[in-house]
Amino acid sequence: MLKKGQNKRAQVTIFIIIAVIIVAAVGGYFLLRSRITTTGIPANLEPVYNSFLSCVEEDALVGISVLESQGGYIELPEFEPGSGYMPFASQLDFLGNPIPYWYYVSGNNVQKEQVPSKTSMEEQLADYIESKVRGCLLDDFYEQGYLVTMGEPEANIDIRDEEVEINLDMSLALERANDTAIVSDHNILVKSFLGKLYSEARTIYEYEQDTLFLENYGIDTLRLYAPVDGVEMSCSPEIWNAEEVFDELEQAIEANTLALKVEGGDFDLAQRENRYFVVPISGVESNVLFLNSRNWSHSFEVSPSQESIMIAKPVGNQPGIGALGFCYVPYHFVYDVNYPVLVQVYQGEEIFQFPLAVVIQGNLPREALDTSAVDVPKSDLCEYKNTLVEVNTYDTSLNPIAANITFQCFGEICNIGEIDETGTITTMFPQCVNGFVIAESEGFDRAKQYVPTTATQRAVNIIMEKLYELEVNVKLDGADYNGEAMVVFIAEDNSSKTIVYPETKTVELKQGQYEVQTYIYRNASIQLAEIEKEECVEVPRGGLGVFLGLTEEKCFDIVIPEQMISNALRGGGKQPYYMVESELQGSTTIDISAQSLDSPENIEELQKNYIEFEGMGLDINFR
């Protein structure tokens, strides 16, 4: 039997035990609650959390797609326009999507690279996800009584060959009814070939910079589809329309670029028969496309040419070289060809693409660029305009005219601005010694004004000469002539304009002294027999003679095959003429009357025609 005092002590002990249990229970509750919020998601909250993760994954996929379609960029570098000298802006417009060039030549002829690093791609993708994640739409869950609170996101991205890992540090509080969870670390793996495609794109780019294979294919296309070097057996000039040559070259470049393949990828056995178009780049397993379009910015230039006419003159019919016994037309044209190529590396539906510039200068590929030199310093001539200059443009009657003004110095061309109908502009110029202020206006000849230094020059006055379009009408022996002819207008500054008649019948002329030359060609039938000749040259003698500078004569037999001359000089002449502006202004047609020559039957008579041609004049009239 318990005593009364003992009972009280037992009750106290029981209360203490109960209190300890209660405290332990409360502590256990909070401890258990903490574990729930950091390591697990209650089943009731899993749908909203899974939806959140899906939203992050979708944002990541969109960001990856943008990186792939824009050459590794989400935020594009600063845009830089091209120029008439170099057609490349810093971005290629592909179906309305701007893609930064990985390599291009700026408008002021500076080589530049914009190759993104893998780290910069990871940072841009992380920034993109951070900007989008708080906008995940969870409205359906809000209507079901869920409460979602998001903290500030911080994303870390790891781009791998076949997946992209996203580690998102962001406090996400979820609550519904009696269930609560707070998750701070979110890990997502997205299936993507971004890393592999980027790596292979870098491999292709570096191979191009090392070997310039795109330029070399372009030169092959140029020599196959355009007149570059050669000899034609003819006694009349060879004439090409540069616009037609460029048009055919555009089509050839577009088709031949598309034909290129990389060994591996979609290169199969059938293509081994035409290995010319297979580029031997090792380390590329994905499929690769090389694209070019004539609609993209490009530039073609050829020299020598007059306006849009390319002319090669014959040798062998001039006075004093009749001993040749035959005529031939040698030609050598020098081209500058600049065009873009878009490289697409793809697997399945994923396409990583980047553009680069193909630059051919003087029939030769550009110099290879050291791929380690990504940041090429750009010229600052056009950026620092710090000298105030007044430019005035006038016609020959000193009336003000509107014009576009540029400044050229040391090969760089800076756009200055437009002059309105007041004929004057006061604006900032860059400082440069021995530059030219250039004025261009529709209907006027391009004018250049030499400026020794813009540092001291405060006003530049430019006189522009008006151009008058006239129809050319050729007459032969007093009657209108519609056969083949070549009409050349050589100005006193040695500039010239050539028209191939009758395909072209208009010319733009300004006031000044000209020599007008007209060559009329008609059908002929001159058969030249085969010629065998012996040519002897001095060559270094073998053995010690090489070191002593001794030479010996070696002879070679040269066979010139027989040829038929079907087009020969049959008329024309040369005439100096000063064209007065009032005469040009009041006329629409210039009549050029020439006399005919006898039809040659042999090479001697053809040479006689050229001798007589030198003394023949022309009758020039305006109406």
Query: What is the overall pLDDT average?
Result: 82
Biggest β-sheet description: 9 strands, mixed
Q: Could you list the spans in which at least 5 consecutive residues all have pLDDT below 50?
A: 1-39, 320-324, 371-378
Query: What amount of the residues lies in strands?
Result: 35-45%
Number of helices: 10
Classification by helices and strands:
alpha+beta
Q: In angstroms, what separates the terminal alpha carbons?
A: 149 Å
Q: Give the overall form.
A: elongated
Number of domains: 4
- Count of DSSP E strands? 37
The radius of gyration computed from the alpha-carbon positions, rounded to a whole number of angstroms, is 39 Å
Helical fraction equals 10-25%
In short:
By secondary structure, this protein is an alpha+beta fold.
Structure in words:
The chain has 623 residues and is an alpha+beta fold. The chain folds into four domains: 46-77 and 114-188, no CATH class; 195-365, no CATH class; 385-462, Carboxypeptidase-like, regulatory domain (Immunoglobulin-like); 468-622. It has ten helices and 37 strands. Strands 27, 28, 29, 30, 31, 32, 35, 36 and 37 form a nine-stranded mixed β-sheet that branches. Strands 13, 14, 17, 18 and 19 form a five-stranded antiparallel β-sheet that branches. Strand 1 (91-94) and strand 2 (97-100) form a beta hairpin. Helix 6 packs across helix 7. Residues 1-39, 320-324 and 371-378 have low confidence and may be disordered.
Secondary-structure map:
Blueprint: H1 4-39, H2 46-69, E1 91-94, E2 97-100, E3 103-105, E4 111-113, H3 118-133, H4 139-143, E5 147-150, E6 154-159, E7 163-176, E8 179-191, H5 194-211, H6 213-225, E9 229-232, E10 238-241, H7 242-258, E11 261-262, E12 278-279, E13 287-291, E14 299-303, E15 309-312, E16 329-332, E17 334-347, E18 350-361, E19 364-365, E20 385-394, E21 403-409, E22 412-419, E23 424-430, E24 433-440, E25 447-453, E26 459-463, E27 468-476, E28 479-480, E29 485-491, E30 496-501, E31 506-509, E32 512-528, E33 531-540, H8 545-548, E34 551-560, E35 563-579, H9 581-585, E36 589-596, H10 603-613, E37 619-622
Parallel strand pairs: 11-12, 20-26, 27-36
Antiparallel strand pairs: 1-2, 3-4, 5-7, 6-7, 7-8, 9-16, 10-15, 13-17, 14-17, 17-18, 18-19, 20-23, 21-22, 21-24, 24-25, 27-28, 27-31, 29-30, 29-32, 32-35, 33-34, 35-36, 36-37
Helix pairs in contact: 2-3, 6-7
